[in-house]
Amino acid sequence: RTEEQWRPFNRSRVYMADLESVLHYSLRVELAAHTLIRGQDLTALRKYISVLTKFFPGRPVVMNLLDYVNTRLQNHTDKEISYETFREWLDNTDQSADTALPEGVRWVGCQGSQPHLRRYPCGMWTLFHVLTVQAKSIGGTDPQEVLSAMRNYVHSFFGCRDCAEHFEIMARESLVEVNTFPAAVLWLWSRHNRVNNRVAGALSEDPNFPKVQWPSPEMCPTCHTVKENGEHRWIPEQVLPFLLSHFSSSSILTDYLE
Ligand code: FAD
């Protein structure tokens, strides 16, 4: 990469450009690998689009598009759908409806120091944290809705198959115990930290963005404490408000959007 291409950003903030890039990549690149979508994959796609329609804190044109695609999917009663048809809905350019999902990716907070580092998986985590936080603040009906949609999406479509397997094991282990919206936010945070712990030092780690147990004491001093025996302990009563604020729709920066 050249220096001009690097977009300066604040490491402790969330960017809408990353979230829109994830939508573009998952719906126009990752899904495109599936010529025909049916069975549990079709269910996963429906649930994914449905939670995005409900909880993605997007610009009006993007929300209009999600609404449009969601409606088409709900009305599609066939047992399968071709990616081609789905793509036509996605690229719907009906001017009167004022819908659009920007073409291409523009990573900001998820930029990596090499093209194969960070980017899409970073954006995916960010998207799912934002969705669990939105579900908590808007108030859905099912505290497991977002996590279960995420689990199904990852299982059916996430390109990193190793990641999908690991994630499925964690979900199978304890997702049923999530009974409240705050618990859903904290579940995803703690599982993400488990992944950080497992992949720290791996080849997939960007040396400029080392894997840490997150948020660091610099980002959230009150989230951490040390027990008498010197062991680190999280303070969930502090972590929760930190996450709700960090990933809240009003904290998302709109720099670098077209
Ligand atoms: P990421 O871990 O992608 O995090 C993105 C941003 O989220 C960080 O920059 C930080 O701002 C914030 N963040 C970090 N930790 C937390 C937290 N605990 N809670 C909330 N926010 C946080 N890679 C593997 O090698 N093996 C795997 O098994 C694997 N499983 C994955 C499963 C899923 C569902 C996903 C989406 C990705 C997985 N990956 C896995 C990829 C890996 O977790 C990283 O996404 C990738 O290495 C890029 O790392 P990153 O430095 O951009 O930070």
Which descriptors would you attach to this protein?
mainly alpha, globular, 258 residues, binds flavin-adenine dinucleotide
Account of the protein in words:
By secondary structure, this protein is mainly alpha-helical. It has one domain (14-203, 226-251): ERV/ALR sulfhydryl oxidase domain (Four Helix Bundle (Hemerythrin (Met), subunit A), Up-down Bundle). 51% of the residues lie in helices and 5% in strands. The protein has nine helices and four strands. It has helices at 16-30, 39-55, 60-75, 83-90, 120-138, 145-157, 161-174, 181-199, 236-246; strands spanning 36-38, 80-82, 224-226, 232-234. The chain has a two-stranded antiparallel sheet. It has a two-stranded antiparallel ribbon with strand order 3-4. Strand 3 (224-226) and strand 4 form a beta hairpin. The longest helix has 19 residues, at 120-138.
Short description:
The chain is mostly helical and 258 residues long. Helix 6 (145-157) runs antiparallel to helix 7.
Order of helices and strands: HEHHEHHHHHEEH
Estimate the helix proportion, in percent.
Answer: 40-55%
Largest sheet, order of strands side by side? 1-2
Instruction: Outline the low-pLDDT stretches.
Output: none
| Count of runs of 4 or more consecutive helical residues | 9
Write the CATH fold name.
Answer: Four Helix Bundle (Hemerythrin (Met), subunit A)
